From TrEMBL:
Pfam families: Acetyltransf_10 (PF13673). It comes from Streptomyces hyderabadensis. This is GNAT family N-acetyltransferase. It comes from the Bacteria. Keywords: Acyltransferase, Transferase. The lineage of its organism: Bacteria, Bacillati, Actinomycetota, Actinomycetes, Kitasatosporales. The keyword Transferase applies.
Length: 163
């Protein structure tokens, strides 16, 4: 999947992070956005779910990482979603670098996670959205449910989209 929202924006590609260098780029983006920018403690940013998750990475044509996200599936997703359904994936750790915001990278990453979920036979994707990002996910077809709750000291809402 590639994106060029307008001619003034450099081309980028979104792909599943299969090799160690891609996975390290995913973790570097998360560190920049969540740990450095949003002050999430590093010891809770990386977790046991990372090992088996599907990670997606957006990179500029020159190789600079722009964003990342991950999909939990199976038992890991069932533990995270609202009803314990193993057919529902869990989108998380969606992060776009400050320089790449507003270029369509976040939406491309969400769609890549949804593609990975479909490929695994999942019927829906759940996520925990920071409340300031609710509109972004709503525009992509997600619906909020349940009460607001804190995660790493940041207000969130659960959301879901059927695939």
């Amino acid at each position: 999947m590639s994106g060029t929202p307008n001619p003034a924006v450099p081309a980028y590609q979104v792909r599943v992070a299969e090799d160690p260098a891609d996975r390290e780029a995913c973790f570097a983006v998360r560190k920049d956005v969540f740990v450095a920018e949003q002050k999430v403690p590093e010891d809770i940013e990386y977790d046991a779910y990372d090992a088996d998750a599907v990670h997606v990475l957006a990179v500029r044509a020159d190789g600079v990482p722009l964003g990342t996200g991950r999909l939990l599936h199976g038992a890991a997703a069932a533990a995270k979603n609202g009803d314990g359904d193993p057919a529902v994936g869990s989108l998380g750790r969606l992060a776009v670098t400050a320089a790449a915001r507003g270029l369509g990278v976040g939406a491309a990453l969400v769609r890549a996670v949804e593609e990975a979920a479909r490929a695994r036979g999942l019927t829906a994707v759940d996520l925990h959205a920071q409340t300031h990002a609710l509109g972004f996910y709503e525009r992509l077809g997600y619906q909020a449910y349940g009460p607001e709750f804190p995660d790493a000291g940041i207000p969130h809402r659960a959301m879901r989209r059927a695939l």
